Each structure stands twice: as structure tokens, then as C-alpha cells.
Amino acid sequence: MTLVILLTLIACGQTRPDSKGISKVTVAFSGYGCESECPFEVLSIDNKLTATYYGGQFANRQGYFKGTISQENWDSIQTRFDKFIVEGIDTTKYKKTDHPSVEFFIHDGLRKHRTRFNENTGKMTNEDLDILYWFIKIASRTNLKDTDSLTFETSWQYSTPPKTIDK
User: Fold this and answer.
1) CB neighbourhood size of 40 (10 A)
2) Taking phi first (over 0 means left), then psi (-120 to 50 degrees means alpha), and beta for anything else, what does residue 139 get?
3) pTM above 0.85, yes or no
4) Number of C-alpha atoms within 13 angstroms, CB side, residue 92?
5) Distance in angstroms (rounded) separating the CA atoms of residues 145 and 151
6) Which tens digit of pLDDT belongs to each residue from 39-84?
């Protein structure tokens, strides 16, 4: 009985590892769902400070790009995206649905865990959206170089033609 109590106290006393455990963040905006011209784009940044970006239709920067971000930027990414691992995404505030869909992945290297989320941004809180839009704008503030095609774990960033109905 003493051993059980001791193990329980040890387990309860351990705190969750800090956000330094995030090893990769990827965010993609689909461009679909808007009444206007929303961009198809994806940005992925890992703990080796490598940034890869794809800008598709309606993106300010079109094509495939790769580069390096600063350690300060990475530390800020970990702090902001740790919120999603701890608290999750708030989609209780239903708004309009004519907003782009977002898909993102957060890799937590310490626990070998991957958080995946996809939702119409019109259903998300402004606080959550601010983090996602801040992240995707890193691509425009970073010196990324043209590169050949890249592969991303997301699927929404690629523009696909609408299906036609045969009559």
C-alpha cells in the first residue's frame, strides 16, 4: 500500500514537459470555403530550424521554397503552439463558414505524439486564428530560396480543379 501511495505521489508531482518537446509544426490553408480569393499555402518548420513553404493559387509567393529560421522564431513557435497541445482548439464559437479550412500538425518529439487538426477557420476563436496566421506569415518574413517540389504531410494546401458533372 505504501508503494502505491508513493508511486501515485511521484506521478502526480511530475509536471508536463515544457514546450521544448515540440519537434515540428505544419500549417496548411486550403483556399476553399471563401467567397474571395483565399490562398492555397503550407508552411512547415522543424526543430532543426528548417522551414519549407509551398505557395499555390492566390498566395503572395507562389512555388516551393526552403530556408532557415532563427532560434528566437523557433522558441516563439514552441510557446504559441504548446497552447494547442495543452488546451486544444476552441470551435465552440460558430461564425460564418465562408472562410478557408485549415489543417495543421504538431509533432511532440518527447512523447512521439502528433496532434492533427482540421477545421473551417470560421468556427475558430480569434486567439487561435491569430496563432495560425502569425505562423504562416513567417514564410514572408524569412529568406527562403526557390527549390524543387517538396512533400508535406498535409493535403489541403494543393489546389484541385472542381469536379465536373457529366450529363
Assistant:
1) 22
2) alpha
3) no
4) 2
5) 16
6) 888 999 999 999 999 988 888 889 999 999 999 999 999 988 888 7
